[in-house]
Amino acid sequence: MSTPFSSSARGLRRGAYALAALGCAATLAVAPARAEDTDKTFATFKDDAFGARPIEADSPFVILDAPKRAEDAAVVPIDVQVRLPDNDPRSIAKVTLIVDENPSPVAATFALGQKRQEFGLSTRLRVNAYSSVRAVVETDDGKLHMAARFVKASGGCSAPALKDEDQALAHLGEMKFRRVTEKASERPSEANAGMSQAQLMIRHPNFSGLQMDPISRTYVPARFVNHIVVKQGEETVFTMDGGISLSEDPAISFTYPAGKGGVTVAASDTEGVQFSGALDQKKPGS
Known about the structure:
The model is unreliable at 1-29 and 187-192 (pLDDT under 50). The chain is of the alpha+beta class. It has a 9-stranded mixed sheet, with helices on one face. A 6-stranded antiparallel sheet has the order 2-3-6-13-10-9, with no helix packed on it. It has 3 helices and 15 strands.
């Protein structure tokens, strides 16, 4: 475990996160949005996130699944499946998850290695107000492709943590990292000879900076997992840069090529504390 950043650095970050908290509080008073309204919201920050490049909407090779109405706005499950067309020479470079109406809309960006032509990803997001949730996929030629789903949920950013702060911090960084399935690829190739799926969960409160301490009635300072690197041998499976929209105890399921060596993870949070682990290679039930 590394030494955390200095208190002065933490103070600067917390000041920035407090501004985000004000933005979140303002959104709570706004009437529920419609899908077309959040499209307008997306247009206001699209160029900041992706530049002036056009984005192919409703891409046929990006499938995004999310609930129409979330049971819990603080842990909204989403599933993304990306599969490039047969004989397509390109590979998947990045997958970016976006929640339009969140105070920090870019939830996480996954930069892929291994020249992948298919990739599966599942995780859980906070949704602060009725919003479109998007998966924007960048191929290695720089082109952008998108799928979106409108989710009815509210209050996910400011929802109180399930655990108290002391309990959450006592187990900070504990991991569950296991293989859950292994199957033949639908399109066997050197890059996709077979696919395995792993599930990673990191114990972390992922404080958003928007939650209120019930005793002091002040905002709990933001602290969240903001960087994850998953490797298979010496190859990078993906690098994730995340923000406050990832849920408490971040959980990520992902596919990776089978039989190319052991899989390891290294992660860090906004305090500079580092965590690491290795994939449990046992099959489920063994």
